[in-house]
Amino acid sequence: MTIQTIPFSNLISIDRTSAIPLFRQLANALLTLIRNGKIKPGHRLPSSREMAAMIKLNRTTVIAAYDELRSQGWLEVFGKKGIFISSQLPVINPKSFKPEKRFTPKGLSQSDFYRQINFDRPPYREIKPFHLLINDGYPDSRITPIDSLFNRYKALLSKADLHSPLMTGNVAGSLSLRRELADFLSKTRALNIETDNVLVSHGAQLAIYIAASMVLKAGSTVIVADMNYILADKLFEQLGARLVKVKVDENGIDVDAIEEICSRCLPDLLYIIPHHHHPTTVTLSAERRMKLVDIIRRYQLPVIEDDYDYDFHYNNSPILPLASADHNGYVLYVGSISKTLAPTIRLGYLVGDADFIRQASRLKQLMEIRGDVLFEESVAYLFTTGEFQRHLRRSVKLYRQRRDRFCELLKTSLGDLIQFTIPQGGMAVWIVFPQDYSISELSKRLYAKGVYLNDGSLYRYSDTINGIRVGFASLNDAEMEKFATALAQVK
Amino acid sequence: MTIQTIPFSNLISIDRTSAIPLFRQLANALLTLIRNGKIKPGHRLPSSREMAAMIKLNRTTVIAAYDELRSQGWLEVFGKKGIFISSQLPVINPKSFKPEKRFTPKGLSQSDFYRQINFDRPPYREIKPFHLLINDGYPDSRITPIDSLFNRYKALLSKADLHSPLMTGNVAGSLSLRRELADFLSKTRALNIETDNVLVSHGAQLAIYIAASMVLKAGSTVIVADMNYILADKLFEQLGARLVKVKVDENGIDVDAIEEICSRCLPDLLYIIPHHHHPTTVTLSAERRMKLVDIIRRYQLPVIEDDYDYDFHYNNSPILPLASADHNGYVLYVGSISKTLAPTIRLGYLVGDADFIRQASRLKQLMEIRGDVLFEESVAYLFTTGEFQRHLRRSVKLYRQRRDRFCELLKTSLGDLIQFTIPQGGMAVWIVFPQDYSISELSKRLYAKGVYLNDGSLYRYSDTINGIRVGFASLNDAEMEKFATALAQVK
After folding, report:
1. CB-based contact (8 Å) between A471 and chain B?
2. Do A365 and A473 fall into the same domain?
C-alpha cells in the first residue's frame, strides 16, 4: 500500500531562511504527520526522487531526512521494495480520540489537573525604559561592587580542579560563605552560631519558603501581623496553613495578643519582622521583644524572624534580633544579602539549629540541587577582604542621606495630603493617604509624567488602610527631584 | 535598689581586636544580661564613671553604650538619680522557665516542631583542591562564554533607568529570555510555543519542583521509572506523593505497563526522561513514544517530561520530545540551560499551557520573588547574538570526541570487568559492575590516587543493580588519562 496520493507539497512547509537545516525540517515535518496518524504504520513513502520532486528539495536532502528518521526507528527499508513507515509503530487515529472521563484517585471528577494559585500582584503597566521606576525598597545597584565579584568568579570558573570540590557536597551552600556569614552575624547581631547553623539560599524569600515548608503542613496555623508582608502570607496559605492575624501598632506587633492565642491553642508558627516591619516600617519595642522571647520559650513557639534589612538602621544601632536571645532553637532567623548587593542578585540565608539546617538543606537540594556556588564563593571573598563590610557602611551612609532628603521632598510636594513617620531604617517610607484619595488614580497621573509607581492595591489589606510603600534608597538626587516634581504637579 | 555588687568585669568580655566598636560590644553585652534576666527592670546601673573603671574602658565608650541602649528603650534616666533598666520591661527569671507541654493542634504530642527529610546523598569525603573530581555528567565550565555574559550584565547593572523595568513585572522570568527560549525551542524541538508558554527558573530542578507542586498533593500517585533520577523521586515523596514504579529496558520505560496502570486507576502524574534516561542513559524508542503520546491523550495523563540534555545528542539528531506532539497541554516540558553553560549557573525552564505557566509563575514568585533578571537578560543576549547556539555546537562537537575517547579508555583500563553501552548523547556513561564488585571500595582506592569518584550508593536502587554514572564531558584529555590510569591501577 503506497501513499503517493498524499499531497505532501501541501502538508510539508519548508522555510529556506531558517537556521534549521532543510533535512531536519523535512524529517520533523514527516514525523509530525506520522505521530498525528496522517501517515500510518506500514505505509510506503515516496522514493527520495519522487519526494524531492514533489516538495522541490534537493534529493540528497530527502535522503538525509529519511536516514535520520530511519536511525530513530520511525522508518524501515525493505531492499528494493522501498521505504516504509515502521510497522512496529502503533496505529493512531488522528483527532478521533475520545478522552476517558478523568477521575482523581478519590473518584471525584476535576476540571483541571493543576491547582490555581490564589494570588496576583497588580499587573504592571508597560514600563518604558525611559520611565523612572519607584520601587518599594530596593538598594541602588549602581554602587554594587560588581567588578570584584565578577573578577573573583572568573578566576574560580577557569580553575576546574579548584572549583570542582567547591561545587559539591555543600548542599547548604558554599562553605566559605556560610563561614563568613556565621562570623558576620555573630559580630553584628550577637548570634551565637557556627558555619553549620547557616544555610545559603537563592534569596531570603526562598529561605522563608524552606523554613515554612519544614514546619507547616495542611491545616497548620500561623500567627502573622495585620498587615503583613503579603508574599509571606500567600506563601503560608499556599502551604495549606491558616493565618491568625494580630494587630500592629507603632511599637510593633501586639505580643499580649500572641500570648492569648498561644494560651488557647498553640499555633504552629509565628512569622514576625521585628525591624522595619513590612510594609509599615515600625520596629518592635524593647519591652515587647523581651515579652515575646519569654512567650517563645514558655510555649516553645516556632518563629520565623524575618530580619531582611537589619543592616540598614540609621538613627542608632539596630536592636539585636530575637534570635540572639536564648530560645532553644525555636527562632529561625532569615536575612538577605540582596538588600546589600543588588535586588537582582538573589542571595539570602536561614539560620537555625544545626540539625534543623541539615534537614532544611536536604529540602533545598530537592528544590534547586545547589545554588551558584561560584557566585557564593565570590561573595564570601568580598567578606574576607572586607569589601562587603565597607560597601555596607558606604550604603548606610548614602541611604541615610537619601532618606532625609526624600522625606523633605515628600513634605514639600505632598504637604498635608499625606501622613508618614520618618523610618528609623530600611529603604522605604510608608505613606498614608486620606480614605477618599485614590492612589490608583495618582499612579495613572504619574505614569503620564514618565514616573512609574504601583497603584497601592498590594497594601489594601482592609478598607481602612490607604497607604503605599515608597522606596528611596535606589534614587539619586536628580531622580528624587523628578519624582517630587511630578508628585507636586499631579497630586 | 542598685546592682553595683554585680561583677560586671566577670560578666562582660570586650575584644579590643574586633572590628565591632567597643561601645557596641558593651551595649550588646549589657543587653544580653538584661534579656537573660541577670539584671532586672528597675535596677540601677553603675554610673558611666564607675562602669568604666570596673571594666577598664574609656568613660566616653560607656556613655555611648548607655545612650545606645537608652535610645532603643532598654534603659531610662531619671535626672540625678541615675540610669536604670527600664521599668517597662517584663521580669524574666533566667533559666527557671518550665516549658509548657507542647501539643500539636490535633492534640498529639510531638517531639520536634519540624519535619525530617528522608533523604541524604552519600556524604562526600573531603575533596582536596588537587583532587580530580569525576562528576556524574557536568559540562566543562572552562569553555563557558563568561566574558560575554558578564560584560552584558555590567552594562545592564549600571543603567538604572533601563534595568528597573527589566526587574519588575515578569514573575515568570526575563521577557527577553522567555522570548528567545520560545524561539529556540520551537526551532530545535518543534514545540509550538510562544513567550507566554515559558517560565524561567533557578535550575531545571526548581522547574520540576514547581511543576510537581502545581499538580501533586498529599496522597497523589506518580508513575516513575525504576530506576529513576533520585532527586525527582525524593521531591515527589517530599510533596506527599506515592511512587508507582515501572521498569526500564534498553528501549526506555515500559509503556504497556503505564497503560495498564492508567486503566486500573488513573495516576496524577507521569515523570519521564525520554532522552538519555537518568541514570542509565537509554532513549525511549519511536514505537513507545507514539504509544505513550496516545496514552497521554486518551487518559489525559499529566506528564513532566524532563529533557535535561536534549541538545547533547551525538549519533543522529535527537528524537523530538513528547511535548512536540498534540497533547492538549498535558505534557509539562522541563529543560536546562545549566547543562549548556555551566553547572553552577542555575537556569532552567518549564514549558506548558499559557494558563498553567501563569499559575506556576505565581507559585514561583512565592518561592523566590524573581530570578536574577539581569543575568537572565544577559543569557538572552547570548541567544540574540547567536553566541549561545555557537557555543552549543562547539560543545556538542567537543563532548562527542570526549565520549569516544572516554569509552576507549574505559575499555582499555577496565576491560571485561565492566559492561556499558556507548551513550547516544548526554554527558555520562552508565557503567555496570559485577554483583560482587564493590564500587565503594573502588572509590576509596581511587581517592588515595587523588581521584574523587562517588561510591555508587546513589544508584543502588535494588540488590541487583551495581552501577555508577560517570561523567566525561567536563574532562580534558589529560584528566581522562589520569582517571583511566588510576582505574587501571586500582581496579
Report:
1. no
2. no
Q: Structure pTM?
A: 0.86
Indicate the pairing of strand A331-336 with strand A303-306: parallel
Q: Residue B395 belongs to what domain range?
A: 132-138+390-490
Distance from CA of A397 to the nearest CA of B (A): 17
Point out which residues pair with A470 in neighbouring strands. Answer: A429
Per-residue pLDDT tens digits for A21-56: 888 889 888 888 888 777 888 888 999 999 998 888
User: For position B41, which CATH number holds?
Assistant: 1.10.10.10
User: What b/e sequence results for B314-330 when a residue is b if at least 16 CB atoms lie within 10 Å of its CB, and e otherwise?
Assistant: beebbbbbbbbbbbebb
* ipTM for the complex shown: 0.85
Range scoring the smallest mean pLDDT among A369-383, B8-22, B418-432 = B8-22
Identify whether residues A211 and A344 lie together within a single domain.
yes
Q: How many CB atoms lie within 10 A of CB B29?
A: 18
Q: Which of B386, B405, B425 is the last residue of a domain?
A: B386
Cα R_g (chain A), whole angstroms: 30
CA distance A446 to chain B (A): 16
Helix (H, G, I), strand (E, B), or coil: what is residue A434? coil
Asked if A372 has any chain B CB less than 8 Å from its own CB, the reply is: yes
* Inter-chain CB proximity B164 and A132 less than 8 Å: yes
Asked whether the beta carbons of A34 and A84 are under 8 A apart, the reply is: no
Residues of A in contact with B372 (CB under 8 A): 344-346
CATH number assigned to the domain comprising residue B448: 3.90.1150.10
Question: Checking DSSP bridges between strand B467-471 and strand B428-432, what pairing results, if any?
Answer: antiparallel
**Are B359 and A117 an interchain contact pair (Cβ–Cβ within 8 Å)?**
yes
Residue of B nearest to A341 (CA): B157
Alpha carbon B128 to chain centroid, angstroms: 23
Using a CB-CB cut-off of 8 Å, the residues of chain B touching A161 are 129-133
Q: Quick one: B222 and B237 in the same domain?
A: yes
CB pair distance less than 8 Å for A290 and B86: no
In a domain, A38, yes or no: yes
User: Which H or E run contains A185?
Assistant: helix A175-189
Same domain as B303, residue B222: yes
**Over the stretch A67-114, which tens digit does the pLDDT of each residue have?**
888 888 889 888 888 899 888 887 765 443 334 433 333 333 334 778
Last residue of a domain, one of A357, A389, A421: A389
Dump pLDDT digits (tens) for B437-453.
Answer: 999 999 999 988 988 88
Provide the domain count of chain B.
3
Question: 534537614: which residue's cell?
Answer: A359
Nearest to A203 among B119, B326, B369 (CB): B369
Chain A CA closest to residue B360: A117
A104 touches chain B (CB under 8 A): yes
> What is the nearest CA distance from A361 to chain B, expressed in angstroms?
9
On the 0-12 / 13-18 / 19+ scale of CB atoms within 10 A, A147 is exposed
Cα angle for residues A315, A317, A322 (degrees, 5° grid): 125
